[in-house]
Amino acid sequence: MHKLVSIVFVFSAIAARSQAPGRAVQFSPPPVHNNFYKDADLSVVKDKYPVFSSGSPYFLDEWLNADIELANGAVDKNVKVRFDLIENTLQYISPDGRELIATAAIKTVILKDSSTGNIYKFVPSSFLDPMKNAKVDWYLELVSGPACLYKWITKAINQPKNYIPSESQASVISSEEFFIYTDSILLPVKRIKDVPHLLNNKVSQLDAYITTHKLSGKSESGFTELIRYYNSLLNPVK
Question: Where are the beta strands (DSSP E) in 18-58?
Fold first, then answer.
C-alpha cells in the first residue's frame, strides 16, 4: 500500500510540474528542418539607416516570403526575409517575431513577390566562387542552364559634401555587374560582344546572333537573350 501511494504521489508531482505556468505543453512534433533558425543570430539594428533622399539599402523594401535551401539540403518554406545590399546580409523574421540576421550556410533563396508575381533566385558567392570572396555576396540568377547568368547588385551610401544629418539627407547609389557561370567558373562579362569568347564554344553562332539581332553594349536584356540562345544550342528543343 505504501508503494502504491508513493507511485501516485510521484506521478501527480510530474503532472503538476508539466502544467506549471509558462510551460506550454507541446503536442505537435518539431519541424523536420529547423537548421535555418538560430537563437544565436544577431538582431537587426532598428533605425540603423537614416531617411534617404533617394534609393534604398534593400533589394526590395518589403518583407517577402522566401523558400530557403540550406547547404545540407534542408528547405525552409515561406520565411519572411529581405536583403540588405549595403551590408550584404539576409534578414529574416523568426517564428517568435524577432528580426534577425541569417548566419546559416545557405545554398539558394527563392524570393516570392506576391504583389507583382515576380520570383527572384539568389545564390551566395560561397557557392559560386568560394576561393575569391571571403564574405557573402548575393547574386541574382537571371538565366539558368549549361551557362547561368547572374547579376551582382551593390549598394552604398552617398553623402553630399559638407553633410550635416540635421540639414541634409544622404542617398543610396546602386551599381550592377554581370557574370557568366559555366564549368564551375564565375566569369565577369563587361560587353555583349565578349560573351562568345568567354564561353569559348559555339563562337561563330553567337557572333552571328549578335550581329543579326543587333545586340550591343551591356544591357541586362541583351545578356539574357544571348545566354538563353547559347543554352538552346546545347539543349535544342526536340
Answer: none
The answer to whether 202 and 174 are in contact (CB under 8 A) is no
pTM for the model stands at 0.80
The residue type of 104 is A
pLDDT in tens, 172-211: 999 999 999 999 999 999 999 999 999 989 999 999 999 9
Report which secondary-structure segment, H or E, holds 147: none
Buried b (16+ CB within 10 A) or exposed e, 162-186: eeeeeeeebebeeeeebbbbbeeeb
Q: Give the three-class secondary structure for 108.
A: strand
Q: Are 92 and 77 contacting, i.e. CB atoms less than 8 angstroms apart? A: no
- Contact in structure between 138 and 129 (CB atoms under 8 Å): no
CA angle 54, 119, 101 (to 5 degrees): 65
Task: List beta partners, residue 80.
Answer: 65
> How is residue 124 written as a grid cell?
551566395
Split at pLDDT 50, 70, 90, the class of 19 is very low
**In whole angstroms, what is the distance from residue 13 CA to residue 8 CA?**
9
10 membership: H or E segment, kind and range:
helix 2-18
Residue carrying C-alpha cell 545540407: 72
Residue 72 is which amino acid?
N
